[in-house]
Amino acid sequence: MVLRLLRKCHIVSICLKDESLIVKIIRKLIKIGMIIRLQKYIEENEEAGQFFSTMDVIIT
C-alpha cells in the first residue's frame, strides 16, 4: 500500500508539480501509523530519499 502511494505521489509530482497532494498523502500515512514503514522505505530506496529530501519537516 505504501509503495503504491509513493509511486502515485512520484508520478503526480512529475506531471502536475502538485506537492500539496503529496503532503496530504504523507499526513494521512502518519495518521494511520504507516510513517515508520515510509521512513524505512526511504532509507532503503535512494530515489525515494532524494524525492522526499525536500519534505524533511513533514517526515520527521
Features:
60 residues, mainly alpha
Summarize, please.
The protein has 60 residues and is mainly α. The chain has one domain (2-52). The chain is built from 5 helices and no strands.
What structural category arises from helix and sheet content?
mainly alpha
Shape: flat
**Poorly predicted residue ranges:** 11-16, 56-60
What would you report as the Rg, rounded to the nearest angstrom? 10 Å
Tally of DSSP β-strands: 0
Oligomer designation: single chain
- Give the termini separation: 20 Å
Number of helical segments?
A: 5
Helix content: over 70%
* H/E series: HHHHH
The total number of structural domains is: 1
Largest sheet: none
Mean pLDDT, to the nearest integer, reads 59
Strand content bin: under 5%
Write up what this structure looks like:
Helix 1 (2-16) runs antiparallel to helix 2 and helix 3 crosses helix 4. The chain has helices at 2-16, 19-31, 35-44, 46-52, 56-59. The chain is mainly alpha-helical and 60 residues long.
Any chance you could write out the topology, listing elements then pairs?
Blueprint lengths: L1 H15 L2 H13 L3 H10 L1 H7 L3 H4 L1
